[in-house]
Amino acid sequence: MSGAAANKRKEPENARSQDATPKKRGREAKPELVLYSTDMRRAPSEGPTTCVTTWNVASLRSLLKNEPQAVRALVEQERADVLCLQETKLKASDEVVAEAQLQATLPSWRFYWNSSTARKGYSGVGLASRVKPLKVTYGLGIEEHDTEGRLITAEYQTHYVICVYVPNAGQGLKRIDYRLQSWDVAFAAYLTGLLAKKPVIIAGDLNCAHTELDIHNPRSNLKSPGFTPEERESFGRLLLGTCGFVDAFRARHPGVTAYTYWDHKTRARERNSGWRLDYCLVSEALAARVHDCFHLPDTMGSDHCPVGIVLQKPLDGALPVAGPAAAATAEATATAVAVPPGGGEPVMKTATAVAVAVADPAVAAQALA
Description:
This protein is of the alpha+beta class and about 375 residues long. It has two domains: about 30-35 and about 45-310, Endonuclease/exonuclease/phosphatase (Deoxyribonuclease I, Chain A); about 325-369, no CATH class. It has helices spanning about 60-65, 70-80, 90-105, 175-195, 230-240, 250, 270, 285, 325-340, 350-355, 360-369, and strands at about 35, 50-55, 80-85, 110-115, 125-130, 135-140, 150-155, 160-165, 200-205, 245, 255, 280-285, 290-295, 305-310. A six-stranded mixed beta sheet has the order 4-5-3-2-14-13. It has a six-stranded mixed beta sheet with strand order 6-7-8-9-12-10. The longest helix is centred in the middle third of the chain and has 20 residues, at about 175-195. The protein is globular. The two termini are about 35 Å apart.
C-alpha cells in the first residue's frame, strides 16, 4: 500500500465480522467464510528448509524507533534466510543509520537498499540476507521505473529472490494507466528474462487484492486502487498466467479469507476489515517445494503484517555433505530443480556445477562466502 493519500479505502457500514452475516427472510444465506488463523500453519518440516519473509513496514525509521527489536524477533522466530522490506521510506543518509541499527541485532546478515530518488521519504525497499548473494541488482533497468526505489533482485546459486513494492494506482486511480500499461508490462518482461535462467521467488507488497477472498468488502471497493477489475485482471494474466507464478498462500489455503493490510485511520485491524496485498509467489519449478506460506497478523508495528514462505530443502544445494555419493545426490537434486516443466534443457547449469563440487569443503565455503 502506498501513502495515506492513496489509501482511500471504503469500509463497510457495520463493524460485524464477515462470518456474522445474518440470514434474511426470502434470501439464501451467504456461505460462512473461513478466516485465516495462525493455527492453520503447518508443523515445522523435519528436514532442512529455506524461509523467505516479507514485510511492508510503512517507514523503517518509525519501526526501529518504536519497535527496535521487531525485525530481529521476526527473523529469529521464523528462522528466516531472507527478509524483504517495503515502504522503508529512507533517504540515502538514513540507510547507513538503519543498517547500523539492524546489524547490531543481526551482525552476520547482509543488507541492501533501494530508496526513492524521486521523492524523499517515499516508497523504498530493502533486502536482508543471511547468506551473501552471488549478485544484487536494483530496479528493472528502466529509468522510468527505477527512481522510486521499488525492486531489489538477489541472485543465489539456484534461484532469485525479488523484493518488490508495486506502484499503487493512487487516489482517484490517477496512476492506474502507468501501473497497468507500463509497470506491469515491464515487470512481467523482467521476470520472463530471469525465469529463463533460474527459478524465482517474489516477495513483497503487490498492491492488488486478486480475488474477493482477499478483501473484506469487495462490492464497495470495485473502484478502489488495488481492487479494480483491470488491476486484478493484469495480476492474473501477467504474473500467474504469462509468467506462470504460483500464489503460494492461495495454493496452500484455497478458499480461506486472509488479509495482510488494515487501514490505521479507521482502526480496521480491530474488526479484521482488511486486504491481502502482500504475497509470496514462486515459479512453477519451486511450487512442489513449498512446505508452508503464512501470515503473522498479530505482529504489530505497521499497517501491514509479515508474510512468509517455507520451502523444503536448502535451495542452494546440500552444502554440508561430503564424498562422491553425496556429491552425486546434490547434482541430481540441482538438475531436477533446473529442468523446466515438461522437460527440456536445464536452465541452472551453474547451480549444478556448484552442487557437483560440493564434495570439496573449500568449494562449499566459497559458495557461502
